[in-house]
Design brief:
Blueprint (H helix, E strand, L loop, with lengths): L3 E5 L4 E5 L6 E5 L10 E4 L5 E8 L8 E5 L3 E5 L10 E7 L7 E12 L2 E6 L4 H10 L3
Parallel strand pairs: 1-5
Antiparallel strand pairs: 2-3, 4-5, 6-7, 7-10, 8-9, 9-10
Length: 137
């Protein structure tokens, strides 16, 4: 069973969505924030799943990477506004053996129907090395 990370807003509220039936509810989760361990949730549909709660100063949006190169990446977003020229921080985990994490700033070069084309801004040595190996044929 995959554990889900749920982000908590400034009022210590989180929206919990059942992975099985899609029902959701907003709840105050302040008492769970300091636990640093998974919390089991039981939905009214009887599904049981584990979540972790994370509170951040800035909300992070999940992206779906469609393509990647040593110079940038293409990804999809399903909501929100991103415009050509915006600078974004992206973080993702590659599906390589080491499950390498890439965390870089990118500049948006194109936007069309939720697809974002972005270029890495001064990628660090780690990113260059990891992507170099990852992209080998």
């Amino acid at each position: 069973m995959e554990m889900k990370k749920i982000y908590v807003n400034g009022n210590n509220e989180a929206t919990i969505v059942c992975h099985s039936c899609g029902k959701w509810r907003r709840a105050n989760v302040a008492r769970y924030l300091g636990l640093n361990k998974p919390v089991k949730i039981k939905c009214s549909c009887e599904a049981v799943f584990s979540v972790t709660f994370e509170k951040r100063r800035f909300y992070r949006k999940q992206i779906f990477i469609k393509d990647i190169s040593s110079g940038g990446l293409g990804f999809m977003i399903n909501r929100g506004t991103v415009e050509k020229g915006d600078t974004l921080s992206v973080e993702f985990v590659l599906d390589d053996k080491a499950r390498s994490t890439i965390s870089e700033n990118v500049i948006v070069r194109s936007v069309k129907d939720g697809f974002i084309g972005a270029e890495f801004v001064n990628p660090c040595g780690h990113t260059k090395k990891v992507l170099g190996f990852y992209l080998l044929p």
